[in-house]
């Protein structure tokens, strides 16, 4: 009796594992339906801007659930992640402007610095906040790839013929709490000829 019970338990466990693996492998595609980055609309006319030395910085944070859902089908602010859309325009052209050393910082009125997240870390934060632990690894990779496609390219210099760059930066709130319409959040850019400072709200 015990041997039969043990055998049946092993068979049931094997079937459950096979069903789980079948489910995970059949769930191909991204974990969220991310809107293709090429369909990104123009930066809002109301976006804040500042400039120095021929370089103009424009930026707009996605503060609402609706904006976040429209692009990523995920509530990033609820996950403690603030996507900030950034645009760089090199108006003087001439000598290429290197961006490899450019560093973006976000600070709030309390002096707290928000951590800049690479796309992979932003995805990890989103999954944890949404209690998503079981998924096809390929689906996660695709989601990471789609989020990374929204990132801003800082490896290629700005030139007279390629003088505009845009994309998203992903910042994590100081205590990983949801984003709650932060006051006096300021974006700083260092590592370029002259530091840029731009209040976002």
Concise synopsis of the structure shown:
Helix content is 28%, strand content 25%. It is built from four helices and eight strands. The chain has an eight-stranded antiparallel beta sheet with strand order 1-2-3-6-5-4-7-8.
Strand arrangement in the largest pleated sheet:
1-2-3-6-5-4-7-8
Order of helices and strands: HEEHEEEHHEEE
First-last Cα distance: 71 Å
The helix tally amounts to 4
SSE layout and pairing:
Elements: H1 2-26, E1 48-52, E2 55-61, H2 65-72, E3 81-90, E4 103-107, E5 113-117, H3 119-129, H4 137-148, E6 164-172, E7 186-190, E8 196-199
Antiparallel strand pairs: 1-2, 2-3, 3-6, 4-5, 4-7, 5-6, 7-8
Question: What features would you describe in this structure?
Answer:
The chain is α+β, with helices and mostly antiparallel strands and 201 residues long. An eight-stranded antiparallel β-sheet has the order 1-2-3-6-5-4-7-8. It has helices at residues 2-26, 65-72, 119-129, 137-148; strands spanning 48-52, 55-61, 81-90, 103-107, 113-117, 164-172, 186-190, 196-199. The chain has a single domain (31-199), classed as Immunoglobulin-like. It is 28% helix and 25% strand. Mean pLDDT is 83; it is low at 14-27. A hairpin with a 5-residue loop joins strand 7 (186-190) and strand 8.
Main traits of this protein?
single chain, 201 residues, alpha+beta, Immunoglobulin-like, eight-stranded antiparallel β-sheet, 4 helices, 28% helix, 25% strand, globular
């Amino acid at each position: 009796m015990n041997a039969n019970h043990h055998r049946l338990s092993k068979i049931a466990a094997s079937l459950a594992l096979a069903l789980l693996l079948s489910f995970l492998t059949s769930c191909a595609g991204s974990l969220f339906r991310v809107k293709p980055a090429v369909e990104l609309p123009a930066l809002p006319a109301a976006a804040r801007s500042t400039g120095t030395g021929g370089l103009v910085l424009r930026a707009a944070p996605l503060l609402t659930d609706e904006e976040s859902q429209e692009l990523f089908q995920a509530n990033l602010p609820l996950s403690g992640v603030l996507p900030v859309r950034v645009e760089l325009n090199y108006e003087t052209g001439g000598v290429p402007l290197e961006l490899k050393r450019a560093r973006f910082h976000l600070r709030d009125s309390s002096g707290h610095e928000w951590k800049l997240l690479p796309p992979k870390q932003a995805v990890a934060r989103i999954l944890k906040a949404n209690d998503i632990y079981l998924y096809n690894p390929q689906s996660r990779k695709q989601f990471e790839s789609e989020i990374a496609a929204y990132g801003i390219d800082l490896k290629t210099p700005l030139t007279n013929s390629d003088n505009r760059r845009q994309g998203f930066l992903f910042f994590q709130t100081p205590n990983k709490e949801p984003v709650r319409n932060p006051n006096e959040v300021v974006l700083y850019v260092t590592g370029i000829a002259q530091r840029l400072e731009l209040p976002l709200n």
